[in-house]
Amino acid sequence: MILITGGAGYIGSHCAINLIEKNKEIVIFDNLELGHIETVETLKKLGKVEFYKGDLRNIEDIEGVFNKYKIDAVIHFAAYALVGESVINPAKYYRNNTFGTLNLLDTMVKFNVKKIVFSSTCATYGEPKYTPIDENHPQNPINPYGSSKLAVEKIMNDYDRAYGIKSIKLRYFNVAGADSKSRIGEWHNIETHLIPNILKSVIKKDQKFKIFGDDYNTKDGTCIRDYVNVEDLAQAHFLALSYLEKENKSDVFNLGTQDGQSVKEIFAICEEVLNQKIEVEITKKREGDPAILYADSSKARNILKWVPEKTIKDSIKKAWEWERVLKTYVEK
Ligand code: UFG
Known about the structure:
Elements: E1 2-5, H1 10-20, E2 26-30, H2 37-44, E3 49-53, H3 59-68, E4 73-76, H4 83-88, H5 90-110, E5 115-121, H6 144-163, E6 166-172, E7 174-176, H7 194-203, E8 209-212, E9 224-225, E10 227-229, H8 230-247, E11 251-255, E12 261-262, H9 263-274, E13 280-283, H10 298-304, H11 312-331
Parallel strand pairs: 1-2, 1-4, 2-3, 4-5, 5-6, 6-11, 7-10, 8-13
Antiparallel strand pairs: 9-12
């Protein structure tokens, strides 16, 4: 059985669907603080899915899930991921993201589970020294969120040497889109991300979309990011797990499209997909936003044989379909 921590959240639940569709048995571990029980219920209807409510900060909870199920491998998503919040409240990030993962790894040692795929981030690189960013780019995070994840990467390397736990660290760039059948999607109670914010501004008339700064040193003055589709990302987790099973060695991979879109370009694609003009306001820069971030993901393509298939337009179309489904949940 595969344990998915944070499987009721955005990326974890898409990874769960990917595995369910490959007839894998999974158990989702989630404290439902940010994940949603509705997502778990949707997943349960699709295949062999167990759910265990628990928190990584409580070792009894984690030991509980390992005692109850025969876990063969772990895919670990559960974490806080708001950069701004991490600056104000670093303790929350280190306790959950770092200390919580330490509990998970210690439990793996105790139960002799030796394989883990870890959800890391391009935020571990910090301010880019060059782009595209490859896996050898120096890691100097500029916020506690990135530091909390980098610490885990280092702990995992030490746990490999000392206890033989093999880990694949996946450093995501910006994740976008939703399930192609609109069964699940991005559902954050506090939404900070670009694409859902543009789409929500159309649904909620009182929530005007704001571009955070248009005087960056980029082609149109707005920040450039690398938007990878969430289903493509989920497939990378499956490939990483297969790689671990076959090669039994630790490694790290960037997951991005190797292409960058500016905020204004994303906005224009949203207008095209929705076939309507969307109101927008240019406001001041958001602190800590680097001008340009995009990935060199050739390593994942060459070694994991990962082929991202979806375009940014596909992602926006699916995100838009999902936003309308989500509206019905939220209005219930
Ligand atoms: N942006 C806006 N308006 C919004 C929201 C975002 O203009 O309402 C801009 C941001 O300033 C940024 C771009 O859109 O230039 C993308 O912002 P997101 O918040 O969607 O994504 P980030 O690039 O800030 O964050 C992503 C991941 C984080 C990760 C970070 C690393 O979501 O988990 O990259 O830098 F930590």
